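Minutes, project check-in

Agenda point 3 was the complex the collaborators sent over. CS summarized: two entities, 480 residues total, and the question is how they sit relative to each other. Sequences were read into the notes so everyone works from the same version.
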Amino acid sequence: MSPLIALRGLHFSYASGLDVLNGVDFELRAGERVALTGSNGAGKSTLLRLINGLETAKSGEIHAFGSVRKQEKDFREVRVRAGLVFQDPDDQLFCPTVAEDLAFGPLNLGKSRQEVVNIVDKTLEMLKLEHLADRITHKLSGGQKRLVALATVMALEPDVLLLDEPTNDLDRDTKQHLITLLSELPQAMIIVSHNHHFLNKVATRQVELSNGRLLEQAA
Amino acid sequence: MTQVLGEVSQSWTAKNDQSKSEAFLNSLDPRVRFVSCVLFAFLISSMHDLGALTIALSIGVGLSLSARLPLWTTIRKVLVVDSFIVVLLLTLPFTMPGETAFTLFGWDASLEGLYRAAEVGLKANAILFSLMGLLGIMEPSVLGHALYRLKVPVKLVHLFLFTVRYIDVFYKEYKTMRMAMKARGFYPKTNLHTLRSIGYLIGMMLVRSLERSDRIMEAMKCRGFDGRFHILNDMRASQRDFIFSIVVSVTMIGLLVVEYL
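CS then shared the predicted structure for the full assembly.
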């Protein structure tokens, strides 16, 4: 089976000229939950943003869902099939209420009102967040915001999840809830995190970004 | 902004379950309340008769009372507006030409000026009270939806909703940075250092807002945003909304009658 996402010889440097990625090769296959580690500023978030076309690579190829993705319009499909959960949930939740925020993605995909309502209910139920449906997004606690941000991406029904430090400011119980949840989801994932306990529980494979290259880690 | 709009704490869909314990006004369709409020404000600002304006003010106060506004925050809001009015009251009689009503330290106060000052004061308060009564208890998100349903351009509605959404975040960022400054021994004084530091603070706020808006845009793109906004909720006017509209229309015609007869 061909990989869902494949990166070949990816190079990237910041506008300042600083090189972050020097030939990254990577493959993500269905069912894999890959932990992406590396020191601060190693380019982990940048890698996720490249996959989603939010940054443009200097050279190299990005294959996603069976085709090479080069331009902005190629990435539109990638973005909704490889759902990126941002580091700061305040960036992601911008609608007045939780239910509306969840509805935003599916509505953009042109789903009917009834379908959207069903998706919202189903997603909230899956993440055990039904009680938050009508809450105002910016009044939620840090942990709730994080779970709701994940829910807004899950509502797109993506094939791949790209999680950027999903355990930040989660207490132990919520972290445990997230571990159980992610382990049960069928989606392939790339998870950026510094929390080794969390990664050991969730990930099926671990890679480390170091000096602009991606190294496979022994499990 | 949050001061004007009131606390944002609940969604409008949740409101429906608890309408019993609420003010009658809050159970009305937000669109009806908004349109009534705008029409009422226009009418009041075009009136000149002190009698009619006094009636309008009492209607406004009545609306505010029936909306069961929190007493102290309401008084605070009224004081903010009326501090401007007081300035007008003090200056208008002495600046408008006309028949002399009284003389103070050799300055003549004109009757016309007094009349105009009273008019402005009544108008401002009548509009303020009806605004607080009709819209003050409305959640900003509800107001946003009502505006959308009233065919206000979607871009404006979303600008409004985004403002409501992020004003809190920016305020928090501001407070955090202020605290960080305090933690390093910063106290504002009248000197260049203070000016420069506050300048950095404001500059940093602007930069952060810009960066945040970029990230929000990206997050929206990642969820398939293509420039069009879709709004999910419906609003339905019920019988009581029609009754309320009729009462409002009759009241406004009544005011016009007092004004012109």
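Noted in discussion: Chain A has a mean pLDDT of 88.
Follow-up: revisit at the next meeting once the mutant set is ready.
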